[in-house]
Write a structure and sequence with these properties.
Elements (H helix, E strand, L loop, with lengths): L2 E7 L3 H13 L3 E7 L2 H7 L6 E4 L8 H11 L5 E2 L1
Parallel strand pairs: 1-2, 1-3, 3-4
């Protein structure tokens, strides 16, 4: 089974585990990079990822900003919030 490298932007550890569980139950194995702020997101983009899952709104970061950054950098990444 292929393992997808998934970037997860989430500030609640319970929600992060729930997302991972739902993805796993759907038959997808993930190698997860978890983070919860823009500087960590920017650093994580130094390597390629297969997908992005984000909490829509975090205290200092949000999905729209994450998508804006991807667009600015020309990164085409499947995303879900």
């Amino acid at each position: 089974m292929e393992v997808l490298d998934i970037l997860l932007v989430e500030d609640d550890h319970y929600d992060a585990r729930l997302v991972q569980s739902v993805v796993r139950r759907s038959g997808i194995e993930g190698s997860w990079t978890g983070l919860d702020n823009e500087p960590e997101f920017l650093a994580a983009l130094a390597k390629p990822h297969d997908a992005l899952i984000t909490d829509f709104r975090l205290p200092s970061f949000n999905t729209l900003r994450a998508l804006e950054i991807l667009e600015e950098r020309g990164i085409d990444l499947p995303a879900s919030s």
